[in-house]
Amino acid sequence: MSNATDETFISQLLAQMTLEEKIGQLNQINPGDEFDPSLLQEGKAGSLINASGALTGMGFSDSGSAELSNHFQKLTLESRLKIPLIFGRDVIHGFRTVFPIPLAQAAAFDPDLARQAASIAAREATTSGIKWTFAPMLDIARDPRWGRVAEGNGEDPFLGSQMATAIVQGFQGEDISAPDKLVACAKHYVGYGAAEGGRDYENGEISEPTLRDIYLPPFRAAVEAGAGTLMSAFIDLNGIPATANRRLLTDVLRGEWGFDGFVVSDWESIKELIHHGVAEDDAHAARLALQAGLDMDMVSGVYLNTLGESLRQGKISMEEIDEAVRRILRIKHRAGLFDHPFTDPLRATRDLLTPESRDLARQFARQSMVLLKNDRDLLPFKDFRRILVAGPFVHARGELFGTWTPDGRAEDVTPLDEALRQTAPKGTELWFTENVDMALHLAHQADAVLLLLGEHPVRSGENCNVSDLGLPPGQAEFVQAMTALGKPLALVVFAGRPLAITQQVKVADAVLYAWHPGIEGGAALGEILFGQASPSGRLPITFPRATGQVPIYYNHKNSGRPIDPNGEFKTRYLDLPPSPLFPFGFGLTYTRFEYSNLKLSAETLRGALEINAEITNIGTSPGTEVVQLYVRDLVGSLTRPIRELKGFQRVELQPGETCRVTFTLREEDLAFTRADGTFGVEPGSFHVWIASDSKSGLNGHFRL
Ligand code: BGC
Hints:
Blueprint: H1 4-16, H2 19-25, E1 27-29, H3 38-41, E2 47-49, H4 64-76, E3 86-89, H5 102-107, H6 111-125, E4 132-133, H7 157-172, E5 185-189, H8 208-215, H9 217-224, E6 229-232, E7 236-237, E8 240-241, H10 246-256, E9 262-264, H11 273-276, H12 282-292, E10 297-298, H13 302-312, H14 318-334, H15 347-351, H16 355-368, E11 370-374, E12 386-390, H17 416-423, E13 429-433, H18 436-443, E14 448-454, H19 475-483, E15 489-494, H20 502-507, E16 510-513, H21 521-529, E17 593-600, E18 608-617, E19 623-633, E20 644-653, E21 658-666, E22 672-673, E23 679-680, E24 685-691, E25 698-703
Parallel strand pairs: 1-2, 1-10, 2-3, 3-4, 5-6, 6-9, 12-13, 12-14, 14-15, 15-16
Antiparallel strand pairs: 7-8, 11-16, 17-18, 18-21, 19-20, 19-24, 22-23, 24-25
Helix pairs in contact: 1-14, 2-13, 2-14, 6-7, 6-16, 7-9, 12-13, 16-21, 17-21
The structure holds beta-D-glucopyranose.
């Protein structure tokens, strides 16, 4: 949090600033075609977005980006007070080294890997002069139609909070002024994932308890981890657009949580307050946002163009402007920009795409893939001489990246077919084709068939929403056609969201969900398919059987007529079982685990309780299990979720090996937003599970 050096420095600087210079700091510019560099010399920009690499349209040589940002910084330092720019960019799941998409990262259930990946992304991105990333994206998503589900950590607030902490720490390190660290931006604050119908930018309604207990916790975790900035969401939440929501931006964020960094709007979202129908013109929109606690205007220009006049008319105060400027200067100062405004262009030659970065990307990709089905242990492939590999992804390169990778380069990726060839055991022939007819022809002579299917990256991400969660057109037919021959059939699905692949899961012998696995995705996949590695990912989000089941999530409430497939007047669909296709937390591997001997350290939780169970590898190969802890509060002043994740641990076990996994549950872990609006626990009975997913497990109980 703020220290004395920051504050004295800022106060002295603020005292010298003219109104125009102050407003300039609140303005973020996109240096596109009509960009006038004199704005920088006049101190009219506090930040540039996308000022480097491909998005400037100036190509990207390794050192060129640093030279370009240094050029902009030099112009800025010609301004009267020489306040440096902060360069921002979307470094979402890696920079040049592209890691798996965030949803896949969550599937690894290993926040420490996410911390390491963020730290590499920071080292790489800062070589371009970028000092601020618009990540992590912390939006809880219960609706996979929404394209941005790919960018977040899924549906669970506990997992989402663990990821938030780790990623913020990875980007920012101990000291964000270090040349290889980035200022993080927790986004999109808040409720953005609740957009109605899964339509991006749409409005949403979230009750106060659900907002507090489900949507806000990852943001709070990011703030507690020291995130320097937040971005407001595009959404109109409960009738107040997040960009103008004073209660959330000021009362909760600053008042309750003590956040002292700054908030940036989303792209033109201040100006969009007019479309939302809460502001009549630019000046009104700017006033609403500033007074709500929104400090920096991302590219709409309305702060720059209207705040001065609003001040002269007495509609806003100098204190309000000063406070926003103060927060921005605080983060710039903390990020070391006043002392080190420039970037050494040579760093790009050392710090991009190192062998260690690639190794981590491969490990992360391996850990994030989720084995959903494996009948008769088809995977890993063994004893097959000829394997037909078919489908639209056989030659994938840049397609493995997923959404939001402006700095990844397809030529850095080993094409999927080549990667599989490199990892297949000697003596195994792989035949590749994208063509259905050719595949049918070749399949006759093959011993097994592997189909590589799923979504192209442009089908997920911002505003890439779908109304149908099935495979893209033609692929279901492809799978169906390949089943006709009765050959062993494995599917690998690449996707930015859970797809409703009910029929394909039924007909295939094995299904591996690979998400968009990043730059080393091909090798990671090969290692899993051919048994050099075993899958250990788990679903960070519920997989529906059909689009019509959405929203469907594990931590729902019970209702007065709980789900019962046989109950005529119980919650149900007439045309679908009530359960999901795969529950949250689910994932198989090449061995099996048995859970036994659940023990609780006491019948009553006083302060804390230890819960443990024995996990045994009862198969014949080593494997990693993600052991999960769930609780249920049986009676509350408000209805409570039927399960809530409270812990997880990855354990690696040799065949026959047993280990005892222990979790500590503290009283505060059971707190929630109660009927009277306060946050705390309520005494009573609780269920607890140590489980391999959100639907199974050993069950015990305790009292509080
Ligand atoms: C997105 C943000 C992103 C910003 C800057 C917006 O359209 O919603 O997530 O950070 O653009 O590129």
